[in-house]
Design goal:
By secondary structure, the chain is α/β, with parallel strands linked by helices. The chain is built from 14 helices and five strands.
């Protein structure tokens, strides 16, 4: 079955063939798709400076029967799609203060850790340290967090890898997943189209999964641990402060719980750094 076209894809595809007023509306919706998800046809017409009849013709050209059908589609994408859906035309005309960004970051961290217990963090750290191999995965905005997690944990865990590497595909790695492995998967939106298939393959391998997502992801019951991070922001981008805070906590707990072998590895790394005079 072919994948349903996204709301924004429909708009962008239709733009070249639209009449001037419809094109103006289409460009407005491309910049602020969340407005359609939030407002009535009359309100959207006023925001875009077009008539209500233009709005009706516009949604029909996109392939929807009526405005409500288009709005339902946009609302669905607002939960899991582009950050554009969370930006309003009012936001675009204003600048958020440093204080507003700091305040939202603090709120995000507090909200994230309300649902995460010390017991969960301890269990994840112990499982990660005891694993045959640790696999860390992230795509798009999740990739830097996966790379950071792998880079820090390699201080006490020898058999850890961030995948896929440059030029690599996942198949060559997935075939090696084992029940005594731990997979740390970052699934921050917008998630890649292959995410569901990847999750199925991890479940089949029976490896323990640490699934780290934003607050919009539905609870994954097949994951050993599913940790939600709040990513709300006053501006046009997701605020990932809580994600990095969670990474820091997990890494620190692993270092604290590392056994003699892990601590010896960390000492050896520091000694080599000194002898190589790299730092």
């Amino acid at each position: 079955m072919p994948k349903e076209k996204s709301f924004l894809f429909r708009v962008r595809q239709a733009l070249p063939d639209l009449h001037p007023a419809e094109r103006r509306l289409g460009e407005f919706v491309c910049d602020f798709p969340g407005e359609l998800a939030s407002y009535s046809a009359q309100e959207l017409a006023a925001l875009a400076h077009v008539s209500k009849a233009t709005v009706s013709r516009f949604v029909q050209r996109l392939g929807y029967d009526n405005y409500e059908e288009a709005r339902r589609h946009a609302r669905t994408e607002k939960q899991t799609g582009s950050r554009l859906f969370l930006t309003t035309s009012t936001d675009a005309s204003s600048t958020q203060s440093v204080k507003a960004h700091v305040a939202q970051g603090i709120v995000n961290i507090e909200a994230t850790f309300l649902s995460i217990t010390d017991h969960q963090i301890d269990d994840i750290a112990e499982a990660t340290l005891a694993a045959r191999k640790v696999w860390v995965i992230g795509f798009r905005s999740s990739q830097p967090f996966a790379a950071y997690m792998q880079w820090q944990l390699t201080q006490v865990i020898e058999n850890i890898v961030a995948i896929p590497g440059p030029g690599q595909t996942l198949g060559e790695h997935l075939v090696s997943f084992r029940p005594d492995d731990v997979v740390i998967l970052f699934g921050l939106r917008r998630r890649v189209a292959t995410m569901d298939t990847l999750l199925e393959q991890i479940a089949k391998s029976k490896a323990k999964l640490v699934y780290i997502t934003d607050e919009g992801a539905p609870l994954l019951t097949t994951a050993a641990w599913h940790l939600h991070c709040q990513t709300l922001a006053p501006g046009p981008l997701f605020n990932h402060t809580s994600v990095l805070a969670l990474c820091h906590l997990l890494i620190t707990r692993c270092l604290e719980k590392a056994d003699i072998t892990g601590r010896a590895r960390l000492r050896s790394i520091e000694a080599l750094n000194d002898s190589l005079d790299e730092l």
